[in-house]
Design goal:
2 strands, globular, 76% helix
């Protein structure tokens, strides 16, 4: 399930931007806003689907239905050549795909808990298979020469359809039955918003949103950046196989996931998040000074650093929310975390990054150094402010005993 969940996404997430800019001739703002649809959909859909899974319907069935509908929409997207139409089709696809990331976690947690596994220790090695799926999809699209072709969307649609059907064979994940009489707020799943009432959680969610914006940037423009070296380094590996070069990021991610239990136990969420923020500073800065020729090593270093930047915030954040939220609002709380990162964060990241790219573009030529340094400066400002405002005392035993 984890493998296929991210295979569906990896088939197009990294290369669709280059397909739209190089093949369909969309501009940076159009591409940024199309990628921003993932953020827009994540504002409400993961929370809504989380409520459905918490209250009324088996989580694995909600997961299956979302993937089947998403597969149909991706097939439609493969035929589109107009930016406005692409925007609406991808928005609809995002409305069904984005909730599946939180649902995938929820199903994993419920199944593991039912089998009496320790979630903090046993979930990361399972989630690794998601990253493996993402990498396999990227390599398949790259080696078949589909990075600037609509065929990447066919692959994604086919795998989404298969996962949708497969989800119905997963162990049952029924809603948690409660004997208490629920208020309207509780029935609508808005009870996860009580987490905002705690200052520590409010600050955590705000930074989750601001870091979510950083994540969107390289997804949207990484392949385009490498494609723009086709005149200066036409025969370089990075230009010929942009997806494979970028996939070093995901390979690094797989390795860093395995270190999360150790880092969370030893340093706690505050230090781990801070490491993530500074990893983003280096991720963008190294892109700014690297190139696919004599600067290839800098690009590779940027890819390696990405593993820490992504995991130490995304996976650790999900586990932190799992620890801080009440069991009855578990799926809603994961949905809320997704809303802040892949919702508001990704939406703002899409808009902000598209405008930055267009601002540093003259006569169709993009000044990538200025673009990446702008993003690096943004992450640096976050890194300076975060430790000053996020107050959190690390409790080693609480992390050790999660769900025991």
């Amino acid at each position: 399930m984890n493998f296929l969940e991210f295979f569906v996404w990896g088939s197009w997430l990294i290369s669709l931007g280059a397909f739209m800019i190089v093949t369909l001739k969309f501009n940076g703002t159009e591409v940024g806003s199309i990628y921003g649809t993932m953020g827009l959909a994540s504002l409400f859909m993961p929370a809504l689907m989380g409520i459905v899974a918490d209250r009324w319907m088996h989580a694995e069935r909600v997961l299956g239905l979302c993937h089947i509908i998403g597969a149909v929409l991706l097939f439609i997207a493969s035929k589109v050549t107009n930016p406005d139409t692409m925007y609406w089709v991808m928005l609809l696809n995002s409305m069904f795909f984005m909730p599946t990331i939180a649902l995938n976690n929820t199903v994993s947690y419920i199944v593991l808990e039912a089998k009496e596994y320790n979630i903090v220790k046993d979930f990361p090695p399972i989630r690794v298979w998601g990253t493996v799926g993402f990498i396999c999809a990227m390599w398949l699209v790259d080696l078949c020469g589909w990075t600037i072709s609509p065929l990447q969307l066919y692959i994604s649609a086919a795998s989404g359809l298969f996962l949708g059907i497969y989800s119905f064979t997963m162990p049952r994940c029924p809603p948690v039955k409660s004997k208490e009489k629920r208020s309207l707020t509780s029935s609508l799943g808005l009870d996860a918003f009580v987490l905002f009432g705690r200052k520590k959680m409010l600050i955590f969610f705000i930074f989750a949103m601001l870091l979510g914006a950083a994540l969107q940037i390289t997804n949207t423009f990484g392949t385009t950046f490498l494609s723009d070296f086709k005149n200066t380094y036409p025969h370089s590996f990075g230009v010929k196989h942009p997806n494979i070069l970028i996939s070093i990021s995901q390979i690094s991610e797989t390795l860093f996931i395995l270190t999360i239990p150790f880092f969370l136990r030893k340093f706690g969420i505050k230090q781990v998040m801070l490491m993530s923020i500074f990893a983003w500073v280096f991720r963008f800065g190294l892109f700014g000074i690297g190139n696919p020729g004599n600067g290839l090593i800098l690009l590779i270093l940027s890819m390696i650093v990405y593993g820490m930047a992504f995991d130490f915030f995304n996976i650790s954040g999900s586990l932190f929310v799992e620890k801080e939220a009440d069991i009855k609002i578990r799926a809603s709380a994961q949905g809320l975390f997704m809303l802040m990162t892949n919702g508001l964060g990704a939406y703002l990241g899409g808009l902000f990054s598209g405008r930055v790219v267009d601002y540093f573009t003259a006569n169709g030529v993009r000044n990538w150094q200025n673009i990446w340094f702008t993003f690096s400066a943004y992450a640096l400002v976050l890194g300076i402010i975060f430790p000053l405002v996020f107050r959190y005392r690390h409790d080693k035993t609480a992390m050790e005993e999660l769900h025991h």
